[in-house]
Fold this protein.
Amino acid sequence: MSAPTSSLSSAHRGTLRDGFRVLGVAIRREPGIFTLSTLGSLLFGALTVADAWVLGWSTDHVVLPAFDTGDVWPGGLLVIVALFVGVALLRAVGIVARRLGAGVMQYRMQAHYRRDVTRQYLRLPMSWHQRHPTGQLLSNANSDVEAAWAPIAPLPMAVGTVAMMVIAIGQMLFTDLVLAVVGLLVFPVVIVVNIVFQRLQSPLMTRAQALRAELSEVAHESFDGALVVKSLGREAEETDRFARKAQQLRDVNVQAGRIRAAFDPLLEALPSIGVLLVLIVGVVRVRDGLTDPGNVVTIGYLLTIVAFPIRSLGWLVGEFPRSVVGFGRVQKVLDATGEMAYGDRRLSPSGEGARLDVRRVAYRYDGGQDLLTDVTFEVEPGRTVAVVGATASGKSTLTSLLMRLVDPDDGRVLLDGTDLRDLAAGALAEHVALVPQQAFLFDDSVRGNVTLGADVPDEEVWAALRTAQADGFVAALANGLDTTLGERGTSLSGGQRQRLSLARALVRHPRLLVMDDATSAVDPEVEARILAALRTGTASGTVVVVAYRKATIALADSVVFLQDGHVDDQGTHAELLARNPAYADLVNAYEQEPQPEAAP
Amino acid sequence: MSLQTAGEETPALRTIRRGVELSPELKQGIGLTLFFAVLATIGRIVVPVSVQQVLDKGVAAPGGPDVRFTVGVTAIAAVAIVVTGLASYKMTYRLFSSAETGLATLRTKAFRHVHDLPLLTQNTERRGALVSRVTSDVDQVSQFLIFGGIISIVSVGQVAIATVVMAIYSWQLTIVVWVCFLPLFLSLRFFQRRLSAAYGIVRQQVGVMLSKISEPVVGAATVRSYAIEERTQDRIDTAIDRYKEASTRAQGLTAFSFSLGGVSAGLANAGVLVFGVLLGVDDQITAGKVLAFAFLVSLFVGPVQIGTQVLTDAQNAIAGWRRVIGILDTPADVVDPGASGTPLPHRSVRISFEDITFAYPGGPSVLRDIDLVIEPNTRVAVVGETGSGKTTLAKLLTRLMDPSEGVVRLDGVDLREVPFTSLRERVVLVPQEGFLFDATLRANALYGKLDATDDDILRAVGELGLADWLDTLPRGLDTRVGQRGESLSAGERQLVALVRAHLADPDLLVLDEATSAVDPALEMRIGRALEQLQRGRTSVTIAHRLSTAENADEVVVVDQGRIVQRGPHARLVAEGGVYGRLHASWVAQQSLR
């Protein structure tokens, strides 16, 4: 018996300790509901034992006397009914309190931590987000939170089981010391068998979970690439790839099944063997006049009803490894620091465009790689500047700096002469709007996606949609402005998403509009219309636009040409075209194409 | 074209029959498994019967308690426990093995069939749903077949055998027990329906919550740009609370229905003892038998407590099974003629569209009256506004879909009569988005030609003029491209797709060309590679930029589902019309004063 116990490695014991520590966090946070569900569980445990006691009492005081004497004690029958029904009803109350309490505690802890984690996501700076993969952050808030609090579900049951075992053992000892000792041999064996079972089973469960994820990845990828698979006729090879994973999953599941198949009957047989032992010793003791038949019944019954719930201890401990890992991941998010600091200044509202000054700005990626060095340019109120550069020249980083999604490592960004870092939280968004390359839509109506909760009359929403050339398709949606979008609603094409994202910026009449290649997925013709509308619509606003297309560049009063993170040149398009060969190469790429004889 | 949906639900029994038909492994050896199940269930009554025997014949034996008899009974009981335990092991293992094997087969069949469904390429929104059909839906069936299977067999057997033993002891007391439990058995369905509804709401709220929680992560930049942190948090909090409330309601219902089993057991025990005593006084029953009833009653509690759960699992599993079967029973719209078809000879292809009309089922026609002949070795560009039907033309040509009316012929052979093996070898589509698999560059290139050597790949790269690009990748062909190829830029992904197409060496190349997110220098590189690729073959390009049309031998202009103009670029520009308009807006964008 001591062999499996001593083989608990220190790592395993560490998990056990950490698992209880995580549970301690939950108990301290929700002491009331924990107490309630534990009391429910204790009530249940005590009454389960009481049930056996009622049976034994009835046997000795009512059933056997009646059989022996042939006389029925009517009061005794009433007591039996009252005892059994009373115990059963109270036990039902215990069950409801235990299960509902455990559920409520678990859901509350999940809710607390999901709130805390998402609050942290909103508080931490963009640079932190860029360092962490999206998938990881989503699973921190979802599956990690769930795993962390999974042991709460079996917790009250386990506490109740321990209490029930103590009571049962006490009652057994009190009823008949010798029979109790015989019966008690069963408990440690059941506990050890449970532990061995958990330790054999849990690595297989983890492996099966991982394989399920891999299987799903293969299916996702294969269906995503369906066009490639189909057009190259590679269905058979893809099916092989999937079948291999499906087979691996099957093998692990069957292996886990074999272990379960072996342990389930074993765990059921142990208490039965215990009862048989009690019967033999009991008959001997009844013969010798050392005990009553009722005591034999009581102890036998106690063994059968208490041995089964011992499993709940196994369930509890079995959840610990996932719980500890999940809690650790969540805690890491909650412990993260680096909130962006804000000043207290606000810019005075005005109908005029804002004045933008970028002074000797440098920005390094986390690892130390320079993305921008010594970038200086200014934009007069109401002017439009195009930022032009090859892929990875630092254009998107520059737009992030203008919106203060990140702060420069060196230099300053000034809006109307005020350093962005001196502005109060939220003050910048009142004057500047960024339209990113990848439009993001909220799980909300079209109106909600454009206004973002601001109180804007529908006419103004439609006006913004019109400028963004989005009014046509929005009007065609089933519920117009009230149509739900996003993951769970109507889905839009990339170009439509970009146009909504643009309308979202325009409806605010920003004094500085920053567009990061924001019309890349829009048809050239539609883009031309957007640009035309923009020209007339935001005549007063200042615009910074990242662009490839000449038509977009044509909108600008001047051009900032970025190369490898620094300003290679700035001036009007014509000036740059004339004096900067690199610039000319980049923007004239289309015209350098070998022209067919039929070219106009 | 749509999959079987909830509206046209097949009855549960037919679903199960069809499911077993699709996974014959489920049926194999089921007789033996059931035999083991019956044996295993008998194990549950060993203890109550021993208690009764010992009390009646051991303790109350004439002449004092009989130890020898007791030892005999317990020895037999111990052997019975071991034997039934072994039977239980065999039963569980056999169930696991046959269910998992059968479902692995079902999964794989369904996966293969999904690739034949037009849905996959036409409705990208539904891909997630298709994935869950071959993953979680099947898992649900497996969970139920194994655990639900074990639990239902054992539960039903347990109740049945307990009833039989009870009836042997005393039919009167058996009736008492059944009167106490019957209402509960009858209400299982009722509770199960309420529980299903409650958990349905929970699932829905999970979906809403997950989507709201993703907003501060996926939309991190947008939330900050518009300083809407508070509003975002409020929306998340509301969703979290709704989920918590829905879960709590469902949990309350579960706890309540679970607690009823114990109440019935209490009633039954009281009834058994009271009526047992009354019967015993008349010498109709022994004390041992009355007490054995208390043990036998406890065999009823488990099945009642988990009954609602098993019914819910069964319902979910049958729904999951129905969805997987729905996939397999959805006919592929495009059917492979296989060996009975006419393979195409290996040479540059002549294409003819004869009187083609295409409409999605229930929708307006996307293409109308298309008549078009493309001679071998010509480069044709198809232009038109978004939604004009030009992409549909490409899909018909590569037989991703069949026309509603009319015939597409390659070298005079109806496309529907060309076996897929021949078709996919001769006709290759390079889709708009260069999709790559999460593997090395080499593995991705091999999709074009399975037995290509590194030399073949390098030659293809060289011929496309991409050797210096490959040199910029530190690990060359061993470069891992990441999920969906996202470690490479959008333009580079297209380059790999072109290498793949070059290795496939088709006679007809269909290009859906879009290079929106690519910088001009890379776009030019792609353009040059494309030209290399088109050499010596017939090619049809769905052109998004008119520069492609300028280079083509012939331009076909599609407008509102019809071909409105065709001819060389220069002539069409002179003609004006739709092409003239497209061209004017293109020129306006490209040139500056």
Observations:
- The first helix of chain B runs from residue 12 to 22.
